[in-house]
# Entry
Amino acid sequence: MLKTFSLLALAFAASGAAAQTATYKVDSDGIAKPLTGTPGNAARGKALLAARGAAPCLDCHVITDKGMPKGGDKGPSLDGVGAVLTTPQLRLSVADYANVAKGKEMPVFHKSGASDPRLSAQEVEDVVAYLATLKK
# Structure
């Protein structure tokens, strides 16, 4: 019983920590430092976008990559975004686009200092890693 309680307490503590945003600094036009100590995984980022759950980018944007579902037409295509934007610019665009373009309609996924982000810091890094692969 005590072991079960300890495991539940650890799980609850971990979930509370996961709900907090990473603190980051916007440098010029991007976030230079990764939000986590673990590099982003492009395959996980692609899966997040394809699932359209916490990262519903394809509701508005198109990515013509094999295995990606049909996207929307409200926002610009993300094809080639990795050739146009640097990794720090992609990181800021995913985390808090309001810092990129004021007044543009796009959700905030990981605003510094806010609680209950839509994407965890690692998920932001994973999405950024995938977007950085979109060179054409």
Q: What stands out?
A: Residues 30 and 92 are 5 Å apart (CA to CA). The helical segments are 2-18, 42-51, 81-84, 87-95, 121-133. Residues 2-133 form a domain with the Cytochrome Bc1 Complex; Chain D, domain 2 fold (CATH 1.10.760.10).
